[in-house]
Amino acid sequence: MAERAIRIYETGGPEVMRHEELELPPPGPGEVRIRITAAGLNFRDTYERTGLYQVELPTGLGGEAAGVVTDVGEGVTGLAPGDRVAHATGPLGAYATAQNVPASCLVPVPGGVTDEAAAAVLLKGLTVWYLLRRTYPVQSGETVLFHAAAGGVGLIAGQWLRHLGVRAIGTVGSDDKAKLAIENGYQETILYRSLDVAKRVRELTDGAGVPVVYDSVGAETFENSLDCLRPRGLMVSFGNSSGPVTGVSLGILAAKGSLYVTRPTLGTYVADPEELRSAAAELFGLVESGVIDPNIGQRFPLADAADAHRALESRATTGSTVLIP
């Protein structure tokens, strides 16, 4: 049976995605072929489809998948056919029935984690790992603000923050999403469509503000997020779901209390394969122990990937979404 994949030949809306046969060569030196059993859907995929993140065309889509090793290339050690693996830092092309990926980007999937869970949680969970454990290492007893609390990253963050003893305030777009966020570890939620987020954060922190804001929304929330911070607080801008942040005057940081801003990426934090495997092991350990629930809210057949993108971009999804080949 021929392999199949989602590919794009031009950037644009979901309609540019094509479900077609895939010509897949044998794995090259240092590569491994995996039979994909589940692929994760992430906002980053829409950035690559639209051209916000530049990619070389034509290209596959998707950077997160779980599956089984079926073949190994020259020089690969420590992996063999039949091994269960996942990746979230490899090349694009996870929206497929099979893929060749560098062995260095693969992590083992333990027995207590299903393939769907691994595909749903790895990229988002590694993102939460670097945000909470490296970019701003949160401490028990602190209060933080996390935007898009009911999204895939936000729900994992809420559970992890609860596990670490951190008081989490989350922004959400509806009462239903507020309920979901509370169930997943947030102590308070703010309906951003009807409330002034910064004002509400000040009320919830007795006027002090928070030491860190985690913001994946981007343009719409940037300045208001700065107003949520205490003096010398850190603004972590790690996404662009409302568009990229542009035209920022550094003087704003001085005027609002000698603030810090960072724009981190996962790739920088897990560039070392050993650190990648260590981070994944910590994440999967929390999944196995029940601390983190991947919250798979939607499943789409691979052929319906365009519909999955439409649902994600219209904010009609909750939790994680997986594509099933």
TrEMBL record:
Alphabetically list the UniProt keywords. NADP, Oxidoreductase
Under the cellular component aspect of Gene Ontology, which terms does the record hold? cytosol
Check the record and name the SUPFAM superfamilies matching this protein: GroES-like, NAD(P)-binding Rossmann-fold domains
One Pfam family in the UniProt entry: ADH_N
Output the InterPro entries linked to this UniProt entry. Answer: ADH-like_C, ADH-like_N, ER, GroES-like_sf, NAD(P)-bd_dom_sf, QOR-like, Quin_OxRdtase/zeta-crystal_CS
| Any one Gene Ontology molecular-function term assigned to this protein's record | mRNA 3'-UTR AU-rich region binding
Start and end residues of each Enoyl reductase (ER) domain: 12-323
Whether NADP counts among this entry's keywords is yes
- Its domain of life reads Bacteria
* CDD domains the UniProt entry points to: QOR2
Q: Which NCBIfam families match?
A: PRK10754.1
Q: What is this protein called?
A: Quinone oxidoreductase
Q: What is the lineage of its organism?
A: Bacteria, Bacillati, Actinomycetota, Actinomycetes, Cryptosporangiales
